[in-house]
């Protein structure tokens, strides 16, 4: 009698252990997927920010040298509240009337994106 009563209990314990293992694997997978999604979102934001800065450089709205700070909504902010740091470094060119700059975007001390941009500068006659 004891063998028959112990067998279903052991089977139930084994099923619970397998279920707990499968649940742990699923939670780990969802956690990793969330982390990858957050990284991808940050990189997407960095690309948009670099493109916006490139357009502003081309139109002459901002100088081709300096550091700019942005929050999570890509709005200008102070250094203390910055989520993204954009560094613009001028690139010297040998061609007259051609400007260039390198835009680097960082988030939480992690390099996300680099964009090199060139534009035609207005030449005075």
Label this structure with key terms.
single chain; 125 residues; alpha+beta; 4-stranded antiparallel beta sheet
Structure in words:
The protein is an alpha+beta fold and 125 residues long. It contains 1 helix and 4 strands. Strands 1-2-3-4 form a 4-stranded antiparallel beta sheet, covered by helices on one side. Strand 2 (84-90) and strand 3 form a beta hairpin. The mean pLDDT is 89.
SSE layout and pairings?
Elements: H1 2-59, E1 66-70, E2 84-90, E3 98-107, E4 110-120
Tally of individual helices: 1
Indicate the percent of residues in helices.
40-55%
Biggest beta sheet attributes: 4 strands, antiparallel
**Global mean pLDDT:** 89
Strand share of the residues? 25-35%
Biggest β-sheet: strands ordered side by side in the sheet: 1-2-3-4
Radius of gyration: 27 Å
**CA-to-CA gap between the ends?**
106 Å
Order of helices and strands: HEEEE
Would you kindly provide a brief summary of this structure?
By secondary structure, the protein is an alpha+beta fold.
């Amino acid at each position: 009698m004891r063998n028959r009563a112990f067998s279903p209990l052991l089977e139930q314990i084994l099923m619970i252990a397998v279920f707990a293992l499968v649940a742990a694997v699923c939670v780990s997978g969802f956690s990793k997927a969330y982390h990858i999604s957050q990284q991808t979102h940050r990189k997407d934001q960095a690309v948009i920010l670099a493109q916006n800065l490139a357009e502003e450089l081309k139109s002459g709205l901002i100088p081709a040298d300096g550091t700019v700070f942005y929050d999570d909504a890509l709005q200008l902010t102070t250094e203390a509240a910055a989520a993204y740091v954009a560094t613009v470094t001028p690139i010297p060119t040998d061609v007259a009337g051609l400007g260039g700059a390198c835009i680097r975007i960082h988030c939480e001390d992690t390099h996300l994106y680099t964009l090199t941009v060139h534009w035609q500068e207005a030449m005075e006659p």
